[in-house]
Design brief:
Molybdenum Cofactor Biosythetic Enzyme, Chain A, Molybdopterin biosynthesis moea protein, domain 2, Molybdopterin biosynthesis moeA protein, domain 3, six-stranded mixed sheet, about 25% helix, binds adenosine monophosphate, binds magnesium ion
Length: about 425
């Protein structure tokens, strides 16, 4: 796929009048990033099982009708409607049996029918199936003379060839994410290999002198690097190949070297920390030399500082350091661009819906807030949401308790209890 971008475009777009890097709205930042992200477009052939969790790079056409032949939806008898039409009671002679996988190939004359099982092929000329429970034997000792009651409709209990999928029709489109259902559908068509987009390679590292890796003791003023684990988790859930590049000290030479290494081996580089006002300056100068990166203060909470751009050919997302801000900004600004690069079409947006907020919420107008919420069904079946309590951007346990974000739009002020709010579901995210 061709690169639609000129190399200076991120920088020049960032200078456009309608973008204020010191007060970007969530929507503007999302739209900005979206302009610079395109599908990688590199495809590979994979065996069906290996293709699970990949994005299809080709339209898949059905090689045959599904079902292959007209067949029965019931256990019962296949017969000619003309033999029973308009009659209250008719006795027919059973001349054979069609099981699923065992076709009846003999002749069936007037006044005759066959026994048929669910999935059994309905022979040519037979145009309805009567379930066994709507029939009785003419005499107990002869199982081949069967009495049918009236009211039988033509075509009843038949599944027609091609009723599910027509031969030659597109069953799965390029851009489709392959889940168990899609893998099963492909298997049902006898397709053992598919062309999918290759996995995205994402390199990731944390910055900060205060960070300690698991396994080393923790001293006063230090903390364990958790962001690398949360980001790793969110990436692995998306089927991304993660290149974990550890923790880097707040040292310009070390950071520059790690950026160069990351950009050389990955499609995307994600960092956490180091983009806030106090720290951004030297990183800014460095990244200006290495590529083109814009630094924003986003009108949102949590997650104000964010950097986006390119280092070499790699896309770069500089996420804030605070653990909750990392998750919020990943879901709002990184997730969809990654799916887009992976070729997913249509893009799976975070499901948003309305719920009644059971508690009052403090909210300042002028920024979008993503409060952590617990969504549940009210006794009347409607959705209700409550905040998880303490909402500080460093409080990762609020994400542990949450199953959704309560999204409060920029202009919104305080929220009274009982008000409808937007929620973004986080449960089961892939
Ligand atoms: P920074 O954006 O680098 O100024 O970091 C903001 C806050 O997030 C600081 O309190 C850091 O200690 C914390 N922080 C930064 N990186 C991490 C990390 N990888 N894991 C956990 N906390 C972090
Ligand atoms: Mg830092």
């Amino acid at each position: 796929m061709t690169d639609p971008l000129r190399h200076d475009s991120i920088r020049s777009a960032a200078c456009a009048d309608d973008y204020d890097p010191n007060s970007m709205t969530v929507a503007d930042a999302r739209a900005f990033i979206d302009r610079f992200v395109a599908p990688l477009g590199e495809a590979q052939r994979l065996a069906l099982r290996a293709a699970l969790g990949h994005v299809l790079a080709e339209d898949v056409v059905s090689p045959f009708n599904v079902p292959l032949a007209d067949n029965s939806a019931m256990d019962g008898y296949a017969l000619r409607h003309a033999d029973v039409d308009g009659r209250d009671e008719v006795t027919l002679t059973v001349v054979g049996t069609a099981f699923a996988g065992h076709t009846f190939a003999g002749p069936i004359g007037a006044g005759e029918c066959i026994r048929i099982m669910t999935g059994g092929v309905v022979p040519a000329g037979m145009d309805c199936v009567v379930p066994i429970e709507h029939t009785r034997l003419a005499t107990p000792e002869n199982r081949d003379r069967v009495v049918f009651r009236g009211g039988i409709r033509r075509a009843q209990n038949l599944r027609y060839a091609g009723e599910d999928i027509r031969e030659g029709s597109v069953v799965l489109r390029r851009g489709q994410y392959l889940r168990p259902a899609e893998i099963g559908l492909l298997a049902s068509l006898g397709i053992g290999e598919v062309t999918v987009f290759r996995r995205l390679r994402v390199a990731l590292f944390s910055t900060g002198d205060e960070l300690v890796s698991i396994g080393s003791p923790l001293h006063q003023g230090q903390l364990y690097d958790s962001n690398r684990y949360t980001i790793y988790g969110m990436l692995v859930r998306m089927g991304v190949d993660v290149i974990d590049m550890g923790v880097v000290r707040d040292d310009p030479a070390a950071i520059e070297a790690r950026f160069a290494q990351a950009a050389a081996c990955a499609d995307v580089v994600i960092t956490s920390g180091g983009v806030s006002v106090g720290e951004a300056d030297f990183i800014k100068q460095m990244l200006d030399r290495m590529g083109e990166v814009v630094f924003w203060k986003i009108a949102m909470k949590p997650g104000r500082p964010l950097a986006y751009g390119r280092i070499g050919r790699a896309h770069f997302f500089g996420l804030p350091g605070n653990p909750v801000a990392v998750m919020v900004t990943f879901y709002q600004f990184v997730r969809e661009p990654l799916w887009k690069m992976m070729g997913r079409d249509p893009l799976p947006l975070l499901p948003v819906f309305k719920a009644t907020c059971s508690a009052a919420l403090k909210k300042l107008p002028g920024r979008t807030e993503f409060q952590r919420g617990v969504l549940s069904a009210a006794p009347d079946g409607s959705w209700q949401v409550r905040p998880t309590g303490e909402q500080g951007s460093g409080i990762l346990s609020s994400m542990v308790q949450a199953n959704c974000f309560i999204v409060l739009p920029q202009a919104q002020g305080d929220v009274a209890a009982g008000t409808e709010v937007d929620v973004q579901m986080l449960e089961g995210l892939i």
